[in-house]
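Protocol step 4 of 6: structure prediction from sequence.
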Amino acid sequence: MPRPPPRRLTESKQSVPHFCLSVDCKMDALLALRSQANQGGAVKLSVNDFIVRAAALALREVPEVNVSWHDDAIEYHAGADISVAVATDGGLVTPIVRDADVKPLSAIAAEIVELAGRAKVSRLKPEEFTGGSLTVSNLGMYGISQFAAIINPPQAAILAVGAAERRPVVGENGELVAATVMTVTLSADHRAVNGAVGARWLAALRTLIENPVRILL
């Protein structure tokens, strides 16, 4: 089964003008909502499921990021199709959750489990990993606090997700309090997405993550 080969990603890093933007997201409300949603639910939701749908909803809010770069034109995508990076014995595979902005979280969760399972045994169809609007790469489960991922062309952006960690933050009244914080980093192709647009997309994503009820709607 084809996958992004090392040479292609090497060429991406060498030829694509990457720039990276990072934001910290407070996760306490999302984790509480996830815990409540998983009580007695048939499908267990992961933090990554919330992030995938939030990324798709942010693409709807900032469609200038929902693009791919081609040498002769910028392609604008109608649907918010999120590629999910899956590590397999044969390398990295990126199956796609199509129209993630309109699917309920339970459907996204079930689809990711099913796609990842088939990816690990090389049973994905070409159309299930070809295309996509933006990739989500999550290394938080490995304890990685923050990283910058390499863009998977022709996509113009990839979101790197770190671990949700307890950190000291400044509260509303200026006091130091503990909160669960996750750092996310957007790597974008400057030919298709400029810094201001990338910043608006990250702001939209953070707003959704910190107000997770909106992700359920």
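Step 5 (inspection) to follow. The helical segments are 6-15, 28-37, 47-61, 105-120, 195-210, 213-216.
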